[in-house]
Input
Amino acid sequence: MPHDLLFSLSGERSILLCQSEKMAMILEAFVGKLLDKLSEFIWGEIFIMRDVQDELKQLQRRIERLSGYLESAEHKRHEDRTINNWVVELKDVMYDAEDIIERCMIEGRILLENHPSTLAVRDTSSSFYSPGFLQFKHEIGKKIKELNDRLKEINKDRSKLPALKYTRQSALEGRVNTRQTFPNVIKSDIVGPKIEEATQSLVELLIKDDNKKYRVLGIVGMGGIGKTTLASNIYNNKIIKENFPIRVWVCISQDFSETKMLKEIIRGGGGNYGKAETKAELVTCLSLVLSKRFFIVLDDVWEKDVWEDLLRYAIENATSTGKIVITTRDRNVAGSIVTEGAEIHHVDKMDDHSGWKLLCKIVFGDNDDEEEEISSLQEIGVKIVKKCGGLPLAIKTIGGVLRSKERSNVEWNKILKSDAWSMSQLQEQLPRALFLSYEYLPSDLKQCFLYCSLFPEDFTMDRDELIRYWVAEGFVRRAEGDTIMEDLAEDFYRELIGRNLLQPCDKYGRLSDVAGNYCKMHDLLRSLAHFLMRDESIFLGDHEQSPNANPLSKLRRLSMVNTGEILEVPDVMKQQKCLRTLLVWRSLKLPMVENELFESSTFLRVMNLSGTRLESLHSIGDLLHLRYLNVSGTDIEELPESIGCLVNLEVLNLSGCGYLHTLPKAITKLCNLRCLCIEETPLTHVPKGIGKLKHLNHLQGFVIGHDDRRDDEGCDLKELQSLSRLRFLEINNLKRAQPSGALVLANSRSLRTLILMGEAMESPSNDEEEAMAIQSNEEEEAISIQRNDKIYNELSPQSTHLQKLKIYDFIGTGFLGWMMSSPLSASFPNLTSIKLCNCISFPQLPPLGLLPQLKSLCIWRMRAIKTIGPEFLGPRASSAATSFPKLEQLKFEEMSNWEEWSFGMVEGVGEERRGAPKLLPCLTKLELFNCPKLRALPPLGLLPQLTFLAIGAGAIKTIGPEFLGPRASSAATSFPNLEGLYFKEMSNWEEWSFGMVEEFGEERRGAPKLLPRLTKLGLFNCPKLRALPEGLRHTTNLQELNIYGADNVKEINNLPSLKSLRIAKRPRLEHVENLDKLQYLRVDLHSYFIETSTTDADGRTEHLPQWLLELLQNAPAAMQNLKEFKLTCSLPLLKTFLKDGPNWPIIQPIPQVKINGTFSSYIRCTKDPPSFETNVVESEESMDR
Output
């Protein structure tokens, strides 16, 4: 028995004990962790419960004996109601035991704080015990004896259950193998001819010209059959991308929020809903956003109301045409939505051959070296596929199981003959394969998987937030060494993704093949989890409620959606007083939580009230067991000092609380806090003492100093020196910091993300204003700059695990010393993302090209930089070296003094260096915005993987062959993968040439290899550009051309593949011709210099510009593919297109015409079926009437 009480109560062991496992869902996993906790409690704090020491040991022994039957009980409980009731009762005892032990630990900590010297010598007398504590000891002792009696009865009942077998497993069994790896890229389930044929036929149907405002296609099939996969395949099809400039994907859950869904579609369409909040405002906004041909996927539609009440009006009043695809299980829903003549496509079950191919893809990947092994397993593999019933989701999840097993007939045969296939208690629509996939999960993973069903349907789960839930709930065992529980939880996340039990997606919920920061749960898997959790958890939503089938069980988790203004917890939960988890979603109207809820929920471990209108948490200090508290985005104005009583709290999220200005000093007592989020909350300061929170690994929005310069209250940088476990650190208001005299992050050797924020400065309107501002207080500025140099160099990260670095608003004498040192590749071998913003004093960029893993780089508002040259790539780059070997995205923005950019790749004689092709070999996206002094561009045509290029360089006058690459030979291809090319704000650009035509006008052999994949070209505010390059006609895939503010371009011609042309803002065009495949023409003449002829003293008649008149007159012959013409013009010109007007004959043959004039005037007409609609009459007199 240990004799050092302080070690037991306040040392590392006790802190870990207080953090250790809490709520569980799987009895087998829960009991193992409870035994660990019970053992440490008995031997660490027995002095305060000396009277019941024997009872505690007996409790421990009884739990150990019963634990050997748990594996058998968990497997058989779903088929045998008697066994299930036995498990429910045992689990109830386990929960109560944990609550009692934790309460003792909390009381022990309070004793230590009140009587540190007495307890330090293990005085076992009770002279210092308060009457209240003596009463507590008596009550707890009584409860422990009751627990023993209950366990005794449970053990007796167990003897009456002969089906239960004793299977004592080792401590390592049932645990997640953290060494097992799963791929970051998830194998697609697009296999077999059926889905490819369906995709091709439906794409052809969708792009077919039918002269309709819109068409709706319904994809119908049972759950898990592949509706979303088919819709995703169509959505990502190249032809769809080419034909629909606007593409939006949105998931429609049963509990969808009308306004949230409308906002998602607006944002996905490239629009901005601004301050619009009501349904009416958002519907109107959506109509305006759909200004180009659009393609919208509504995935997982359950009710027709989503169309009738929300989207129909917006789409019918959109300024463009489009197609909508819905996926649904209900044919009646599809039938009530799809338009006349549209198709309902039924997704068939996958045949055995395609199912086997999918299973192989999941288990073996694309490895062709394993044909012999695949062949040996094919017979049994096809039998497994048959059991999956042709459902791709079932095959994928079974594939996840098989991938974790030995590839042998013996192991695969175990899967084939598993009892889980015959599970009779499941709902009919739940495939047994999903249950089998669950059964073969390690017990630690089972509880993590089940927990995901507490999120709303189709909810996009943030990986880091999900991990914090798992840790706070106690699903992750304590880690050893430098590994923290969040690291282990991340392994759990990857394994669930790899087993296809969670679906990777982007932050907007669109499914992805890459296991990144977000995921979703398929609704069938979510239904399975609800079924398996029904004894302990309940989900309350507008359209769904997970049942509680067993009256013997106690509900311990509650998840609610759209609560309204009152948080109504079911009465049974108030009476049972066992609630451990409360999650509230999409409840924007909820203003407060009644004290009654807190009083009946004293065992709460997890509470999420984010996004509500909550104003206060006065009774929060009574929730002594609380581990996770999220009140982000609420109206909360203050936190009570009593929050310091929550010594078990691990996660506190206060981000985005706009009315919260101070934190209580008691926050420094939260000794087990692991995550503190306070970003975007206007705090004056953070109380001193944060450095005492040794377990912090995520600190976001840390404020330095005090708004009122009261340094005695605010934190300084020294607070960070003791936080050795930090993984994520964001520091705000560094302008208020003082040098600490030491490396602040010397002990944070596992740091992954570092964000340093000075103090945002107002951007001067011009350089002269900026110079005046600097000169106004030169001496003070010099002192501040020297201080900043010291501070930022003291913030040198010492972690080789650093992955993300962001620096905002830094002013110093130069760049950070630790970024200029060499070699960067050794200091930051894992750095993948860098963002440098408003660091106006950096005259030179560091050699970032040396970073081996860098994938994303953003440089913004670096005003001191005039030249970027070879030093940016790395010193002495040899021909064998590769600069920026993995960089994928590069962005420069608001570089007001940047004049020159060179790769340093061309020798004196003009020949390309051998090392050039190794420059930026993976770059796919390059953006240069608002760089007014940049005079020239490097040979960007050499970049082999570049797909998107946007250039905004105001000083450039000429773009010529050097842009393509030096001395491009006939065998070379310039911009081999570029798909989108945009020039913006090029105010001095006059000439654009490819240099491809020889002196006799003959095309060079190499010309056809110029921009072979370019599909989109945009010219925006290039007022001096005189002409498009002659060689543009050789870009055989160019389909979309947008010209806005290129006033001096005279001709657009000979673009054989062009399908869409948009022209706006005073063009002086003379000829537009030879656009044989043009389908969409849009012209904005609002600010155009119109030819006019005065007809009388009262007004004038306006005419179309000659080039447009000729183009439209020749349309029937020269542009046989023209489908749509849109025109924005003045009201007088619009009148010339009325049926009796002079321009009516030239638009009459065009399938669809939309003309918008001033004063909200319009004309709409179609050729087939014939229709004409306008709100304009022929004369002003009649309009007045």
